[in-house]
Amino acid sequence: MEPQDTPKSNASAGTSLGRAIDVLGLFSLGAPLLRVEDVIARLGYTRSTAYRYIGELCETGLLAQRAGGSYSLGPRVVELERLLELTDPLYGAGRTVLQAARHDDRVLLLQEMYRDDQVMCIYKQGPDELEHGGQRITIKRARGLPFPLFRGAASLALLAWQSAPRIRQVYQSSSAEIARVGLGDTWEAFRAALGAIRRRGYAVSRGQLAPVVVGVAVPIVLAEEKRVIGSLAQVMAQAQLESAQERECADYLRELSERIALEYARMTTPSTPEIR
Q1: What is the rounded CA–CA span in Å between residue 9 and residue 12?
Q2: Domains in the chain: how many in total?
Q3: How far apart are alpha carbons 228 and 218 in whole angstroms?
């Protein structure tokens, strides 16, 4: 499944901030440039409102005016991305641990929750393509790409370890999609499917995001807080992972995830001032 290009309205869309963010949400790989007419047509804003939000976004550097009355994402986005790379504790912990775990025939992916029904890949370690039977398979998950919450091991490892109230909320808002992807056509069936993943200790998917690709994923849990902060997945060609090897792969990922959690805790724990 390709990353979704359809913009999602923000919960705060009734506010000026929410409406401005909705303008940013119109950008995608398929629509790297926008015109005022696009904002009017896709968000239903009046012309004066569209111009106002575009002007404000340009003033902050989040948008930049281009030729022919079009607009692109602006330099402030680049600045924020650089700042995020330097300061995001999950990204920093993942990079620290996973750089030494690179393999040329498989990919490690670090994910975190994004919006209500998506996950975001924030770090990838490994090749951009895998080889299987003489074919080159492009890995579709990469930093900055959102993916559905209900498909793929990396997503399911995040979903299954959410709190019970959060899981019920997800079902109430997305029951039709949950049934469509085969996770259960009732609340009881959905809860049982996620419970089975939790009891097993890891999520696995075969051919969901690419026909010959298998993914195994585990949650990243802060032990002291018992809080899930992300998931770690390993993706490879199906021929490289028989069903009997799934647990061995999951154990390896769990070891890495525990190291990431420890590094994350170290990076987010305030240092105690030295008393002189």
Answers
A1: 8
A2: 2
A3: 10
pLDDT for 272 equals: 57
Read off the pLDDT of residues 111-151 as tens digits, 9 standing for 90 and up: 999 987 889 999 999 887 777 667 777 777 778 888 889 98
What are the pLDDT digits (tens) for 46-89? Answer: 999 999 999 999 999 999 999 999 999 999 999 999 999 999 99
Question: Residues 54, 176: one domain?
Answer: no
- Backbone torsions φ then ψ of 132, nearest 5 degrees: -150, 120
Q: Are 63 and 32 a contacting pair, CB within 8 Å?
A: no
> Does residue 51 share a domain with residue 98?
no
- CA torsion 233→239→243→246, rounded to 10°? -30
Same domain assignment for residues 58 and 150: no
In a domain, 1, yes or no: no
Q: Which domain holds residue 26?
A: 16-79
Residue ending a domain, choose from 24, 56, 79: 79
**Domain stops at, among 79, 108, 131:** 79
pLDDT in tens, 216-246: 999 999 988 889 999 999 988 876 677 678 8
Looking up tokens 């609340």 gives 187
240: which DSSP letter? G
**Three-state secondary-structure class, residue 114:** strand
Instruction: Return the sign of the alpha-carbon dihedral for residues 70, 75, 76, 78.
Output: positive
Residue reference for tokens 């940013």: 24
DSSP state of 272: P
Closest by Cα among 202, 236, 241, 206 to 219: 202
